[in-house]
Write the structure tokens for this entry.
Amino acid sequence: GDSGAIALAVQSPVVALRLFATNVGDSGAAALAKNARIKSLSLSDTNITIKGARALAQNKTIKHLDFGGDWLGDRRPNDIGDAGAIAFAKNNSLESLELDSQQITTVGANALAKNNSLRSLGLRANYGLKDDGAIALARKSLNSLDLGACTLTDKAIFALAQKKYQTLLAYSNFISDQGAVALAKNHSIKELYLLVNDIHDEGALAFATYGTMDFLDVTFNRMSQIGITLIDNHGGWLAGFENPYPSRTQVFKFLREIFDSKLNRQEFHKSICYRTKYRIECRNPKNLLLPRTEM
């Protein structure tokens, strides 16, 4: 809680601190904001409100901040919204920022697009962001962008496909073959995550024909065995199918298993979900499994 965060802020010499899923609130955030040693701070799924977020936004030594909410549930009611995004957008010391599930819309996206220091931005599960918010962010140069579960369609993807990202995450949206074709022709992207979208064989063919990325995940899409084979023939690319096709609710149930393992964001992004004949498996350090019978 706050007492522990205050003690760490005052006494600890650490430069990286992870307080994921704790009861830290605004008092703890204020203390941490005054710390001049911490470079990397994780405060996702805590009790910090917009007051604490504004305090943290004043810190000029933190380079990597994870301030995500509970994107698969409603256990954390203190979403900071566009006001929080605007506050962090004014901080030109941050290089990496995660604001998952914070009720951010186009207003917040426009503010973040004007930030001069960010190189990595995570906004997954901000369902109100939508196409206009993504298009606003496409004006900004970033190395990595996570817009998973942000209610995106091909309209947003056409704008994002023009950018030179190294890593782009756009899973659990409404991307069709047209969006897939646009992304396949982007030769800057090295890692592309498109699981849980509406990509069919035409999109698979586009990736097989034009794609140059090192890693591609298009599991939980609408490809036939032909499309899956096209993808699977490329090393480092993942596809799959299941009959019947799982609903988004079922997919989120599986992702909840991953989320509850309390992996940090980088570990989560490396926890690649893929399907086999007998189960859905999550490839991560704990090798979490969700049998098909539980779906």
The first strand starts at residue 16 and ends at 18. The CA atoms of residues 105 and 129 lie 4 Å apart.
